[in-house]
Amino acid sequence: MDDGRPIFQQIAEQLEDRILDGSMPEESQVPSINELAAFHRINPATALKGVNLLVDAGVLHKRRGIGMFVSAGARALLLASRRDEFRGAYVAPLVARATTLGIDPETLIDMIRKEAGR
Q1: Tens of pLDDT along 40-96?
Q2: Which residues 6+ apart lie within 8 Å of 63 measured at CB?
Q3: In angstroms, rounded to a whole number, what is the distance separating the alpha carbons of residues 39 and 118?
Q4: What is the structure's pLDDT at 1?
Q5: Which of 80, 43, 115 is nearest to 11 (CA)?
Q6: Structural domains of the chain, count
Q7: Positive or negative, the Cα torsion across 90, 96, 97, 99?
Q8: Residue 2: inside a domain
Q9: Please, are residues 69 and 29 in contact by the beta-carbon 8 Å criterion?
Q10: How far apart are CA 114 and CA 118, in angstroms?
């Protein structure tokens, strides 16, 4: 917990990262709200708010009396979401700037390929 974003968002992102890197596979159990709160030294309500973001997004689901689990298809859902965020944050501004500079799409693609090859 180190940036200016709300802690509950950071909790949700950390769980997402673990799902994406495979350390928390689909259908695996997620740490409990109390475990998350104790680990991060935060209020359980804050941890719950972060987990609920992922429940609302369909990434996690609750099994009554057992706990929270990673939903089937969660990794694909997160990858699609993160790719969409990447497109909006990086690709769209890049294309807009390239257009301003008179760089056509084919030249831009060639530039990207050359840069990726370095």
Answers
A1: 999 999 999 999 999 999 999 999 999 999 999 999 999 999 999 999 999 999 999
A2: 69
A3: 41
A4: 66
A5: 43
A6: 2
A7: positive
A8: no
A9: yes
A10: 7
Written as one letter, the residue type at 26 is E
What whole-number percentage of the chain has pLDDT above 70?
Answer: 99
**Distance in angstroms (rounded) separating the CA atoms of residues 45 and 11:** 12
Tell whether 88 and 47 lie within a shared domain: no
CA torsion angle for 2, 59, 29, 25 (degrees, to 10)?
A: -90
The upper half-sphere exposure of residue 77, i.e. CA atoms within 13 Å in the direction of its Cβ, equals 15
Question: Has residue 1 been placed in a domain?
Answer: no
Residue type, 40: H
DSSP assignments along 23-76, one per residue: SS-TTPBPPPHHHHHHHHT--HHHHHHHHHHHHHTTSEEEETTTEEEEPTTHHH
Average pLDDT over residues 21-50: 96
Residue written as token pair 């369909």: 58
Strands (E), 1-118: 60-63, 67-70
Q: Do the domain assignments include residue 97?
A: yes
Residue 27 amino acid letter:
E
